[in-house]
Every structure is written in structure tokens, then in C-alpha cells.
Amino acid sequence: MILYSMILGGKPYFSYLANGYLKENNRDFPVCSPVFLSGNMPVRGSRASFPEDRAKDSSCNLINDWLFINKRSRDNMTLRKPAEPRKKPPTEASSPAGGRPDAPRWRRKPEERPEAILDGALIEFRTRGFSGARIEDIARHAGLSKGTVYLYFDSKEAMLQALVERTVKPIAMGLQQMAAQMLSAPAADMSVSAADMLRMMLQMAAQRTVDSKVSAMPLLIIAEAGNFPELVHRYRADVVEVVMQAVEGVIARGIENGEFRRNVTPHIAVRSFIGVILLQLIWNGVFLRSDEDPLSPEEITQSHLDLFLNGIVAEKEKN
């Protein structure tokens, strides 16, 4: 209506449109009056008068009726409370692991995200298996979105490899370093005997594998060997062969310096040596009853070393 009146010259009288009627000289007349639409309004105090008859055409009557109804609606209108803004769903920055909206707000530091993702991956791998684990469930454990997980790991295979490097590979590298320190010295100048080195290596490995995060990895590789042979090949190259070479080198040095019998074959003896650790991992992870306490690393190493070393030690050493 306002734009319509501007076009027809009614702009001087916009301030009178609040209630739908123009008031001038104490006289009311409809907005659609020909006088209003033309903009030719009489001057206050002059002898000119307004036309008494209202416009009879149907369009004018409809406009007048609309203005009257609109005025009554405005008079009876009550103010409404502004609508509250919609709350955004919890995201990585506002929701903890599990995505619970009622939990305290927090933000995972970028440097902590890989470790959190690997922790979530280990939970899912142990619970559902490697093939059954889903990226979205791993992200939920880590308190991250699925897209964020892919920024750090492009596949479950990459996560498993990172878990091996985080948990088991440091043990293999530690045994390798222990053996390298001993083998770097000439046989005649060794400060530690081969038997003592084997004892220290076995004790270190047994103590480290007590951690459930460490012991879960060999069991996971064994369980998925048939479905993912490439994982087995990589685990053997990164862990198993590193340990076997380290232990085999110590046994060979013991044969060289006369500690162990000459007829001992190092690459066979090493399987007997490390077999006890693997068996104990399987026993605790699969066969251990809920009412049974696992053997301590000290019990395992002491019994096994007694049997193993007495089987390979030279006759003069036994006496």
C-alpha cells in the first residue's frame, strides 16, 4: 500500500497510515479515497471540505476492509518471546568420547589424537576383530569425528602397523640393542656371559608382555593370520625376525666361547628359547580361567631358564 500511494502522490501523508485511516482537519476518510490517491489534500483551516461519499468501486472497499481488520489485529496483538537459537550437535570440540552431549566440554589436543585413535583401534580390534572393526567406532572411542581419524590414518592396516610399532616393536629393538652391545666386544673381553645375557633378555621380554596392550598384539596377528597374511609377513619382519636374530647371536657367541655345547644349533635353539613367551601370551589371553591367577614373569623365566640353559650348557659348566 505504501509503495502504491507513493506512485500516486500520497507520500506527504504517510505518517497518518498507522491505523489504516488518514486524519486531517478532524475528518476521517479512507486511504483509497480519490483525494488521497491524487495527493490533492485541502489545507487545514481552509474552507475546502472533504468529499463525503466514499469510493464505491470494489477494489476500494476491499482495501478499506483489509485496513480495518489489520488495525484490529494489531490492537489485540501480544508480543512473543524471541525463539531461542538451535543448539548445535556435539562435535569433536564439545563432546567427549562417545559423543555424549551432557558431558563436560573439552578439546583433544592435536598431538594427543594419534594416541587416542590407536587406543580406540586396539579396543575395537580386540572386541570385534580386525575385519569387524569400524572406523566410526574407533573415532567414537577417541572422541573424534570419522573424518578427523582419516587425517592421521588412511586405513585400519595403518592403525595396526602403528600399534605394532608402539607396543611390540620397541621390545624387539630393545633385545636387539642388548645383544649388539654384547656382540660388539671380542669373545675374550666380554663382561657378561652369554647365559646371563639370555637371562636378562628373557626377563625383560616377560615383564614387558604383561601389559595387556602389548600381549594383545601377537594374539591379534595370530587370529587374523588366515584373512590378512600380509599383516603376518610384516609382523614377522618387524618383530619376530629381529628378536630371533638377537637371541641367535647370543647363543652363537656362547658356543664360540665354550659356554654352550658345540652341537647346539642356534637357529633351532632360539625357537625353544622364545617359545615360552609366546605360549604364555596365548595361555593368559585364551585359556586362563577367571578364577585363576596368571604366572608372574619371574616364575616363568626362572623355570624356563633352568630347563633351557641346563640343556645347552657344556659339560664342564654343569660340573
TrEMBL record:
Gene Ontology molecular function, alphabetical: DNA-binding transcription factor activity; transcription cis-regulatory region binding
Biased composition (Basic and acidic residues): 77-90, 102-111
Domain of life the protein comes from: Bacteria
Keyword Glycoprotein (UniProt): no
SUPFAM superfamilies per record: Homeodomain-like, Tetracyclin repressor-like, C-terminal domain
Region (Disordered): 77-111
InterPro entries according to UniProt: Homeodomain-like_sf, HTH-type_TetR-like_transc_reg, HTH_TetR, Tet_transcr_reg_TetR-rel_C_sf, TetR_C
Record-annotated DNA-binding residue ranges: 134-153
Signal peptide boundaries: none
Keywords (A to Z) from UniProt: DNA-binding, Transcription, Transcription regulation
Gene3D superfamilies: Homeodomain-like, Tetracycline Repressor, domain 2
HTH tetR-type domain: residues covered: 111-171
PANTHER family: HTH-TYPE TRANSCRIPTIONAL REGULATOR RUTR (PTHR30055), HTH-TYPE TRANSCRIPTIONAL REGULATOR UIDR (PTHR30055:SF223)
Record-given protein name: HTH tetR-type domain-containing protein
Classification of source organism: Bacteria, Pseudomonadati, Pseudomonadota, Alphaproteobacteria, Emcibacterales
